[in-house]
């Protein structure tokens, strides 16, 4: 990732934090938090390119509990 892209993500995180602080609805605050977490994850992946996250390995079911082998 380029320096320009990294700066953009960091600035966007700061903007989202400001918007989150202004939000009145709990669900809006949670949504902002989710967006911030995802962008932070992108920054972490860039700083640790060899990091092996939870997504590695075989996936046997989805979030709803369906066995993917049934499809």
Structural summary, described in words:
- The protein has 71 residues and is mainly α.
- The chain has a domain at 1-46.
- The chain has two helices and no strands.
- Helix 1 packs antiparallel against helix 2 (26-47).
- 0% of the residues are buried.
In short:
The protein has a domain of 46 residues.
Outline the fold blueprint.
Layout: H1 3-22, H2 26-47
Helix pairs in contact: 1-2
Helical fraction equals 55-70%
Q: What's the gyration radius in Å?
A: 17 Å
Q: Strand fraction band?
A: under 5%
By secondary-structure content and strand pairing, the structural class works out as mainly alpha
List how many beta strands DSSP finds.
Answer: 0
Question: Which properties best describe this structure?
Answer:
71 residues, mainly alpha, 59% helix, elongated, disordered C terminus
